[in-house]
Amino acid sequence: MKHLHFDCIDSTNTYLKKEYRNLDNLSFVSASIQTSGHGRFSREWHAMKDESLLFSYILKDKTFVENFSYISMITAALIVEYLENKGLNNVSIKWPNDIYVNGKKIAGILLEGEVPNYIVVGVGLNLLQTSFDYELRHPATSLKLEKFDLDITTASEYNVLLNQINDFWANFSGDWHQFDNFIKNHNYLLKKRIKLSNISSNIEGIVEDIDSECNLLINNGKEIVKICAGEIEILWVLK
Ligand code: BTN
User: Most buried in the list 126, 156, 188, 203, measured by CB within 10 Å?
Assistant: First the structure.
């Protein structure tokens, strides 16, 4: 596996985007701290030094780039597997790209890229935090908070998770649907009432499913509306 670790970097996603011409498919970059870590909608991604896993990987092979709509969900499924292997329960995917444990966000995924040249997948995963004192939009948790007795460091967990992701893509069978049932069974939003907006409309309704193309299916009382990940701007879970 090709893995480059920086003590400090602006953003591991930005690095791969700048350097994509010089990098091989499945190159990984991680950092102890980022000065311009960002999430979706250009939101700041805040993480103290060596408390989180902060990494990105690049996919350049044509077959991956052309199927980019599956890549975020498959990465989410791999992270859920990793957390379940650590003994965590109640791990789920908040469509389209957050990982939740017991109703709190533990990880986020940010996909960026240029089709057909490359896709960069960035992951921020809370590992060792024991409290979150900065302003966050969602309640947050970390692996350490969920399971105090784990003997983990960022180095040990980069080793486990990056190898797991690398092995998956390096041996990819070509079956984009192998996680379909797993994703359906880990759908955080299932049966929740949500509201979301995109450029053309506002939709409110009950989440019924995630289909095999990774679209969210919402029952708005009249019909089932299909939302593709790229369309989403705001997603609220209503109480
Ligand atoms: C989100 O929840 O909005 C996605 C957050 C993604 C953050 C990670 S941290 C590593 C990589 N570098 C970045 O600047 N962002 C991603």
Answer: 126
